[in-house]
Amino acid sequence: MTGDSDGIFVGRLSVVNTGRRRRWSAAEKARIVEESLTGHRQASATARCHDIPTSLLFRWRRAYREGRLGGSDEVCGFVPAVVMPDAPRPEEVPSVAPGRMAPGCMEIIAHGGRRVVVDAGVDAAALARVLDVLERR
């Protein structure tokens, strides 16, 4: 122990973590979430490894599943696609039963369950703009 001029002894001095606030990029969050979802590793072990609260990891996991894990980084995934045989052109088909699409049409289900139905002659650039707007909502 050391003494000072007032006769007060200091036995131990500890630096306390002040709870610094860290910023995580969307890519880092996605990497940590994917690490927590692989193998038999528990979420609490992954959280400890990266020194984050378990509740934060679970919040990131929920956002990851919902496709909104932040920023402009995109989480890519696969959607089901079915290849159908060529069908007659819509003008060659006399009528289409209610609830069914005309032959040659394609239905795209965007994020959030929004549906877009287009025919084979759709302008790809226009369709890309429409889907981009729907994905941002």
List keywords for this structure.
Trp_repressor/repl_initiator; Transposase; single chain; Arc Repressor Mutant, subunit A; 10% strand; alpha+beta; elongated; two-stranded antiparallel sheet; 137 residues
Give structural notes.
- The protein has helices spanning 26-37, 43-49, 54-65, 124-136; strands at residues 2-3, 9-10, 105-109, 115-119.
- With 137 residues, it is an alpha+beta fold.
- It folds into two domains: 20-76, Arc Repressor Mutant, subunit A (Orthogonal Bundle); 90-136, no CATH class.
- The strands form two sheets. The protein has a two-stranded antiparallel sheet with strand order 1-2.
- 7% of the residues are buried.
- The model has no long low-confidence stretch (mean pLDDT 74).
